[in-house]
Fold this sequence. Notes:
Elements: H1 2-26, H2 32-56, H3 65-94, H4 101-135, H5 139-170
Amino acid sequence: LGRVSELAKNCEERADEIVRRSSRMLDQTADGYRLRRLLSQADDVADALEGTAFMLTVVPPNIDKKSLSMLEELAELVNRSAREYVRCLEEARDLSHTATRVEIEKFLMTVDQLAELQHQVASAERIVRERLIRDAPDFRELHVASAIAQGLDQAAHTLARCGLIIRDYVL
Length: 171
């Protein structure tokens, strides 16, 4: 897990650098504010995931198996959100001014799927928090697992927001 945390930290630092360089270039374009906002939000996703990866390194060795299983399910939903976000970017890239109605609807369904996944993550995160508050054997497990759940929720929420920014830009 230490290696994963270090990798996440390196990715987050690269994302920060991309945002800085891209923002300077976008300052020279008419539509730069939208893309700068998208870059900033995407960087927030990287920040949330980096913080979550760090918290994984301090998970108590005796964490409750059910809590761990619930966190894994939450992480899988966020993984699906990230894959949908990549799909959203690819579909937006491939749309042209002469896009068919079917292509536009496919893109919009991907944006909707991102929003749906965000709602699923939010619901799952509340269930994890409730279980932790009721059943966590100690404060350490409660704090670490809650922070992981919150970071995953924040990442999914921000990915969904990125999808809306892309939608508004494309349409």
